[in-house]
Amino acid sequence: MFNKEGIPFFTIMIPFLSIIFVTFFATSYYLKLSNENFEVDLKEYKINYVLKRNDISLNKIIEEKKKEHILRQNKYKDFMIVLTSSIIIFIALFSYLMTSIINDVIKKYKLQVKNEEIKLQTLNKTLASKVEIGIKEAKKKDKAILEQSKLARMGVMISMIAHQWRQPLTELSGILMELETATRFKKVNDEHILNSIEKSDKTIEFMSNTIDDFRNFYKPDKKKENFNILQSCQKAVNLINASLADSLVELSINVKKDKNIYGYPREFSQVILNLISNAKDILEEKSIKNPKIELSISSKGMLSIIKVKDNAGGIKEENLDLIFDPYFSTKDSTKGTGLGLYISKLIIERNMGGELSVYNDKDGAVFQIVILG
Question: Which of 90, 322, 335, 373 has the most CB atoms lying inside 10 A of its own CB?
Fold first, then answer.
């Protein structure tokens, strides 16, 4: 169907064969028509001869008509030969022209394809190196994000330790002042000293336990395990309670149905801590009167739903789609890195197979965790 150059065979041959067929068909049809006319003419002459009793011989008339018919046929044949020859020559020239045009088009197309193949081969050669470079850059970026996240968490941890230690340090200072006063006025005795030492030991033990709590809290989980949602949330609340009290933020915990889930308990607690901490920061930034945060735990079928809600007025609509992007923050640059919510979303969705989302209600922003369990 195609020749070696890829030119459609029938594109040239079908018109050529069709014209030849039409030419021969027209010739045969005309000859048939001429024979029929000749027979009609003979019949008319026979009638005229019989009616008029012409002296001219009938055979002679018939011979003359035959000669005229043959002459007429010969003329038509000559015409058809010239016509057919002209058409054949035209088709031959036309076919040659079309072949040249198609060859040029195909050559250009082949050249374009060859150029694209060269480009593709070049791209394939460099693709591996580009992919490798991209992976290295992505790893560097992830490493940088993790490092910044660690620094941010360290800053949060130090801030929370400071809030947790503020009251015990005040108590220690009061015990020392009391001892100093009693000593100056010569009213100190062994019982007083022992009571002061006991109080001091308890306060120092509390401060030491606080350090252990924070150290264990940020220790990475090595494997998944079943854990209680409320207990994990309570660990986060215990670390931030002092900071909330210092900021006069009321935290309420509403448990409709508590369940056990499968995942990383410390990482889950870190997410809850981050959500509560963000809510506290925005309440302080907007100077909300009667600032409140509500932590609710409920269940729907096989899903556990944890919500952290504030009354700070909500997030701007244009920021809702960006809130979980790395380095995006609505806080002042000195207070936020824009990594907390990004890391939290990674923990819930990538590490634990859940979903972390946000929406606004009439009071403020609601961060919702939906997880199987």
Answer: 373
**Alpha-carbon span 304 to 257, nearest angstrom:** 9
CB-based contact 297:255 (threshold 8 Å) = yes
Q: Which of 307, 321, 324, 325 is nearest to 364 (CA)?
A: 307
The encoded tokens of residue 281 equal 């920061």
What is the spatial distance between Cα 197 and Cα 50, in angstroms, rounded to a whole number?
165
Which DSSP string do the residues of 354-370 spell out, in sequence order? -EEEEEE-SSSEEEEEE
Comparing CA positions, the residue from 243, 235, 268 lying closest to residue 161 is 243
Provide φ and ψ at 2, rounded to 5°.
-120, 145
DSSP class of residue 2 equals B
What is the pLDDT, as a whole number, of residue 228?
93
Rounded distance between C-alpha atoms, residue 78 and residue 88, angstroms:
15
What span, in angstroms and rounded, lies between the C-alpha atoms of 218 and 233?
14
- DSSP 8-state code for residue 291: -
Is 120 or 310 the better-scoring residue by pLDDT? 310
Strand partners, 262: 226
Give CA 140 to chain center in angstroms. 23
Check pLDDT > 60 for residue 52: no
Phi and psi at 69, nearest 5°, equal -65, -45
Q: How many CB atoms lie within 10 A of CB 5?
A: 10
Query: To 5 degrees, how large is the angle CA 61–CA 64–CA 68?
Result: 135
Answer whether 0.70 is exceeded by the pTM: no
- Token pair, residue 191, equals 């019982």
Compute the distance between CA of residue 232 and CA of residue 131 in angstroms, rounded to an integer.
41
Domain 223-372 is found in CATH 3.40.50.720: no
* Distance of alpha carbon 274 from alpha carbon 293, whole angstroms: 13
